[in-house]
Amino acid sequence: MPKTTGQSMTEPTFALLIDGDNIRSSLYPEILKAASHKRLLSVRRVYGNAATANGWLQEAHLRFIHSGTGKNATDLLICIEALDLILGGAVTGIVLATGDGDFCHLAHYLRERRMPFHCIGTENLSQRLRKAAQNYTILPSETPIPAPAHLLPNPHAEMWRALHELIRENDGKIPLNRVNPLMRARIPGLKISETGKSWPQWIEAQNGRFILCGTAQDRYVRAAP
C-alpha cells in the first residue's frame, strides 16, 4: 500500500496567537521554540497596530493582522479569533504569547471546556494569567549590554525597578492616577516633582522602558514589550 505522509486528520493542532503590542519580534525564535514543543502549529498569527508593530511586519512566517488603534483592540480581536478557531474546529488548542493579563477570561473559558491553553510571556507576564492558564512558559531575558565601568549609576534605576515590579504585580498595567501613590508607598520619600517632571512626562522620558496607553481618565502605563 502507498505510504501517506503529512498531517494526520486526528492529530491535535494548535494556533499560535501573538500579542504584538506586548511582545517584541526579537523574541520570536524563543516563542516558536516553546510553542512548537510537542505541538503541531497549523495557525501562526500576530496581532497589533501596524503603525507600531515592534518589528513583526518583517516576520514572513507569521500572518500579521492589524487590530486598529482603539483601546484593547488587540486583546479583543485575539479573543474573538481564538474562539472562532476553537469553536469552528480549525484547531484543538491555543498557544498565546503575551505580556498582558487581560486574557484570563479566555483562559478560564477554554479550561472549563477542557481545551488546551498554553501561555508564553516574559517575566512581566501577570500572575493572574499564569494561574489561569493550563500551563505557561517564561522566556529567557535578553542579555543586557553592560554599562561602561566609569559611568555613574543612573539615578532613575530604583524608580525603573519599582515601577516594573508594580506593573507585574498589577496584571501588566497600572492606571496613571494610581502610579504616584503606589510608587511613593514602594519608595518612601519619593517626590516626582524633584525630577522636574510630572509622572506622564517622566514615563515618556525613560527611553521607551514604559508606554502610556489610553486617553483622558482611562490612561494607564505598562512595560514596553
UniProtKB/TrEMBL annotation:
Pfam family of the protein (one): NYN
Start and end residues of each NYN domain: 14-138
GO MF: RNA nuclease activity
InterPro entries in alphabetical order: NYN
Domain of life: Bacteria
PANTHER family xref list: HTH OST-TYPE DOMAIN-CONTAINING PROTEIN, SLR1870 PROTEIN
Protein name: NYN domain-containing protein
Taxonomic path: Bacteria, Pseudomonadati, Pseudomonadota, Alphaproteobacteria, Rhodobacterales
